[in-house]
Amino acid sequence: MNDEQLGNPLTAEAECDFCIELNGGTDHLFQDIVKNTDISRIVLSNGGLRVFPGLGMLADGHLLISPTYHAKSCFQLYPDDAIGLIHLIKEIRDKIQKNTGKTPILFEHGNPTTCESNCSTCIEHAHLHVLPFDPGMLPVIQQERRLIGSSPLISNPLSHAQVTEPYLMLVDTNLVLHFFSTDDAPRQYLRHLYARLIGQPELGSWVPNISAEQTITNANHYRVLLNT
Ligand SMILES: [Zn+2]
Ligand SMILES: [Zn+2]
Q1: Which ligand lies nearest to the CA atom of residue 109 in the structure?
Q2: Is the pLDDT of residue 138 over 60?
Q3: Distance 172 CA to ligand 1 centre (A)
Q4: Under 8 Å CB-to-CB from 76, ≥6 apart: which residues?
Q5: How many whole angstroms from 14 Cα to the centroid of ligand 1?
Q6: CA of 127 to the centre of ligand 2 (A)
Q7: Structural domain tally of the chain?
Q8: Confidence category of residue 61, pLDDT binned at 50, 70, 90
Q9: Closest-lying ligand to the alpha carbon of 125?
Q10: The domain that contains 93 carries what CATH number?
Q11: Nearest-5° angle of CA 140, CA 144, CA 149?
């Protein structure tokens, strides 16, 4: 997708917590919690993309990949970052596999439209969740949601799978992307599903599970793991 198709070039938004944090600002939720401007949770950068552990983590090793600008879907990234994202996914997957022997799974609550409402997003700013292992998500989603399309991990998988509506995306352990409908899906559906499958349904919502200590510990761990 190019700038013209997006309507306006994407920039950081003054009111968005992720835009503020990922552009080096200090007035954001993570700072409110740690109260120390010397502490950052960003562990890796690639072009306009940042990698960092989440705040209400589903499991140790739960990372997010986000752009520094206000895109609403990983498929609204600028072309260089769309390519960068593929490299990042492969690099992170490779290093987690070597470190833990397990293959991560990724998911996104995404909205490729300009419409505001999306019942299934966690937060509006695009963020791809990286979870350290797969508790068997695909067969359950296949039972519970309508499949829109699937695609291998290529530069523009969204158009390949013909996705034009808000979606739930799962990147399986073979790096195949599956897009499911958000129709009737509860908010944060994929988070809640992961939490349910690991036997800890109380971790489904991120806000009650915020732990600065866990996030900082994971940031320190991944800063070493992903930069060596
Ligand atoms: Zn934003
Ligand atoms: Zn999310």
Answers
A1: 2
A2: yes
A3: 26
A4: 1, 6, 10, 112, 126
A5: 8
A6: 6
A7: 1
A8: very high
A9: 1
A10: 3.30.428.10
A11: 90
